[in-house]
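Quick one: structure tokens for this chain, please?
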Amino acid sequence: MKSEMVSNEFEPVIFPDSRLLILGSLPSVQSRKQGFYYLHPKNRFWMVLSELFGDDFVQAQTSEKIICLKKHRIALYDVIVSCRIVGSSDQSIQPIQVSNIPALIQGTSIDRIYLNGQKAADLYRRFFPDHQTHAMRLPSTSPANASWSLSRLIEAWRVICE
């Protein structure tokens, strides 16, 4: 498979009263095709949020997901704005342009940032060294992280409820 230049065309889901921001690296091929975050059918992100917050994020349409995110004061975005990538492989990510996370959260109530997976965490640490205090890496909900069961992910992600 050949690498291609990909731009993240998703707008951040963020509200002035958002209290936490969840950052991924870049939407998968499936999510890009479907037009919203974490829509690969085997990604467990929405399952984890459903279990933690008691709302059915899994069956919800995109507009309903956004309403539930707002209700729980959760913002979503990605560290990467554009890059070269092979398929959805984080390991293949080449020259990248990163999001302006400090500007994104300015004027919001965000005081915690959670990084969905190692690649998002590595990039965040590399490009935002002055904004590490309230940032925490969580295990990836991606199907590529198959060694983590859904129940283990839920327990690890429970920290976002605190």
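The first helix runs from residue 29 to 34.
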